[in-house]
Specification:
The chain folds into two domains: about 150 residues, Ferritin, core subunit, four-helix bundle (Ferritin, Up-down Bundle), CATH 1.20.1260.10; about 160 residues, no CATH class. The longest helix has about 30 residues. It has ten helices and no strands. The chain is mostly helical.
């Protein structure tokens, strides 16, 4: 059905469904943030209560005007309506992104009520829709005031710090572990094959197998090591994918140069790539792990050098 063809009963029914869906999304946001971001959870609890109040007022008017039965009309069933929102948007969303989404939802709700007013003639229905449109507009301003109040109290700074910590636990740590393993552990088999065969094609096959195999192994190891419920490290599947992907990338970085037919040129480029990989790992440890850069670089480079020498010694012997 088209939005412009809805009658008064259908518009009220659609408004009721929309308020229910928005309230559920706000509750989902609040539950997600309650442990680590209490200030944001408080904001969404209040917004969910407001949506519940709107729903009750709409239902009371509908019952008076059209009876007890309220047809279920969903947003996705109405042409000309904004693309429906779903609770999937609440999964693994940062607090600032959730606030942006909420602001957009409130704006959409106000526009809906303003458009619906133009299609109704009943005075009581027009009054309620107009009141709700104004309240949605006030909600946008109220959310901004709450954000300002929380920012002045330092609550948002604490949440920002916590958001960084969560990001490090769920993405940086598994990604860094994978990158280190892929960049370092594949050095020995790759360069052992290189110096043993002197053949770029065979070396590339060994490097490719080592990189893909290490990626699969590290991905499963990370996913199975911690379900994330107690540690707060997030979904194990996501961590496993991040870790496995970064492991493969770390190994492929110095494997791809062996697509070059010239053995000496390929080996020289591969060594240069290894240096850059180790520097990138050091930079990540310095930026996210509060490790002194020179200390991080020394530890990573020494480890990488030892693995490289092992591969060279085994391959050349």
């Amino acid at each position: 059905m088209r939005f412009c063809d809805l009658n008064e009963a259908q518009l009220l029914a659609l408004a009721i469904t929309s308020e229910e869906e928005d309230g559920r999304i706000y509750r989902d946001f609040a539950n997600q943030f309650r442990k680590n971001f209490p200030a944001t959870a408080e904001l969404f609890d209040g917004m969910a209560d407001e949506e519940s109040n709107h729903r009750h007022r709409l239902i009371e008017l509908y019952k008076i005007k059209f009876g007890e039965h309220i047809p279920l009309i969903k947003r996705e069933e109405v042409k000309g309506f904004r693309v429906p929102r779903s609770s999937w948007i609440t999964r693994e969303v940062r607090p600032e992104k959730a606030r942006e989404q909420a602001a957009m939802m409130e704006l959409d709700a106000r526009k809906f009520y303003e458009a619906a007013i133009m299609q109704v003639k009943d005075a009581s229905v027009r009054q309620l829709l107009g009141d709700l449109a104004q309240e949605e507009q006030r909600h946008e301003a109220a959310a901004e005031r709450i954000n300002d109040k929380q920012a002045q109290a330092g609550e948002l700074d604490l949440e920002e710090h916590m958001a960084k910590k969560v990001f490090v636990l769920r993405f940086v740590q598994p990604g860094l572990a994978g990158l280190m393993d892929g960049s370092v552990s594949t050095l020995a088999p790759l360069f052992a094959a290189a110096f043993a065969t002197g053949n770029t094609t065979e070396t590339f096959k060994v490097g490719l197998a080592a990189s893909v195999g290490a990626g699969i192994s590290m991905g499963f190891a990370e996913a199975l090591s911690d379900d994330g419920k107690l540690s707060g490290r997030g979904a194990p599947t996501m961590r496993g994918v991040v870790c496995g992907f970064m492991t493969a990338i770390g190994g492929l970085g110095h494997t791809l140069p062996y697509l070059i037919p010239d053995f000496h040129l390929a080996t020289t480029i591969a060594m240069i790539v290894v240096v850059f990989e180790l520097l990138i790992i050091s930079l990540i440890r310095w930026k996210f792990m509060d490790t002194v850069f020179l200390s991080a670089a020394f530890q990573v480079i020494v480890g990488g050098l030892l693995v490289f020498l092992a591969g060279w010694f085994i391959g050349a012997s």
